[in-house]
Amino acid sequence: MRAVRGVLITCDSAVKQILLTLDERPGQSFIIEDLDEFHVLVRADEEQRVRRELEAELEKNTYSMEA
């Protein structure tokens, strides 16, 4: 077995569900281990991409008032 560098991400359960959904996309696997309700270990080389995609998903679910 080969060692893989990872980053521990702490989040609430709603954000974790989004991360799990993003990880299920074909060719997008980045989760090394689903640790518990609030922690996920992701591949270190994918951290910035994961954060960008998560931010985009959260932005889709944000209400904004159009002027």
UniProtKB/TrEMBL annotation:
One of its GO terms (biological process) is nucleotide-excision repair, preincision complex assembly. It is found in: Nucleus. The keyword rRNA-binding does not apply. Keywords: DNA damage, DNA repair, Nucleus, Transcription, Transcription regulation. Signal peptide: none annotated. SUPFAM superfamilies: TFB5-like. One of its GO terms (cellular component) is transcription factor TFIIH holo complex. InterPro entries: TFB5-like_sf, TFIIH_TTDA/Tfb5. Component of the 7-subunit TFIIH core complex. In NER, TFIIH acts by opening DNA around the lesion to allow the excision of the damaged oligonucleotide and its replacement by a new DNA fragment. In transcription, TFIIH has an essential role in transcription initiation. When the pre-initiation complex (PIC) has been established, TFIIH is required for promoter opening and promoter escape. Belongs to the TFB5 family. PANTHER family: GENERAL TRANSCRIPTION FACTOR IIH SUBUNIT 5. This is General transcription and DNA repair factor IIH subunit TFB5. It comes from Russula ochroleuca.
